[in-house]
Amino acid sequence: MVSMQTLRIGNGCGFWGDNLDAPIFLARDGKLDVLTLEYLAELTMSILALQKQRDPDVGYAADFLDVLERLVPILKQQPNLKIITNAGGMNPQACARKAREILKRGGLAGKRIGVVSGDDLLPRLDELIAKGHMLTNLDNGAALASVRSPVVSANAYLGARPIVEALARGANVIVTGRVADASLTVAPAAHAFHWKWDDWDRLGGATVAGHLIECGAQVTGGLWCHWDQAPDLAHVGYPFVDVEADGGFTISKPAGSGGAVNLETVSEQLLYEVGDPAAYLTPDVVADFTSVQLRSMGPDWVQVSPARGKPATDTYKVSIAYRNGFQASGTLVMIGPNAVAKAQHSGEMLIERLRRIGIVPERHLIETLGTGACVPGVLRDAPEPVEIVLRVSVQDSRRAVVERFTKEFAPLVTSGPPGVTGYTTGRPPVREVFAYWPALIDKRVVTPCVEVLP
User: Fold this and answer.
1) Which of 224, 249, 298, 347 is deepest in the core (most CB within 10 A)?
2) Is pLDDT above 50 for 349?
3) Would you say 287 and 280 are in contact if contact means Cβ atoms under 8 Å apart?
């Protein structure tokens, strides 16, 4: 463990589906005080909500349980290591019960599991709307009542306080529902250093630390603009921070692991998914990212000076998902001369054939991948490629329309321009669409709940 003046917190997961080995290697080699595992995104919550509707005993990120089972030997070797994760998703109680079974089977029955819930607002939506909480869409100003019926999930982003309460009550493993990503790091630091909830600068510093490590390997060489200079990126190390009592910290990764931690990798992640860097809003604090200074401390070590923070807002962000029809995307590869024109024409033929039989999708998109179509207008013009991936997508409130669309790709093989290939994967699947509805709600009407399982 690190000295008493610092707390070492490492994050071994940046999203549900991240590298399953990363938490094991980080816990084994990182000499951590706290291991965090961040699984949730907006789409993830809607997926978990549907799982829970089908089976009340699921609705959490099941990968965590596999990881926890593999962590049992390490927890025996490192009895003081704590784990904090939002893997509970839509059902933290069920996830915590499964985790308790794993620990008991592994001979760790003495470990106490904390559960943080209270973020799920779906059962209360009608009550909240009736009391005047309109949950207005932050993007378009519409009231949630306009799409109330198809809503499948509504979760407030809780902060660090309930996690701190669970730590204070002796929890060794804490499973939460939806909390703000950075709060997974803020909580153990606030608990260890006995920060007050108006220690804005310290909370701001820990928020910067949490933001830097919340996406896992993105700060240790993943997505780095000079990725080819990151040694052994195939075995990239996941990050940890040594947080100090004043909110400053250093950031690194386990010795001997791949990737890189330097001024560029840290700077890039610092600005990732940030609107106003001078006012990064969290449930705990409004952090000023422009107030920090980065300093290289040697290979794979960067020091981050304490940040400034301002009082937190009186609202929680709420992530809402609702059913919004169906979609499908299909691809074909076009090769040879005039591949771009052939691909574009083939996509137009496909849509025209639907129109001819009276089927007009509400939305469609024709893309010629390989020409910069993913980011139109961003990339410079390139020489005409000799092969192109045609991707055609449709979205419609009527499933039958989308299903009919999926049957139009194969005919292009013999009735379209020459050079069609790559058509052996079958008809594209039809998927349900979940739209995102961001909103705010008064903190006073949301009550976090903390339990410690016996």
Assistant:
1) 249
2) yes
3) yes
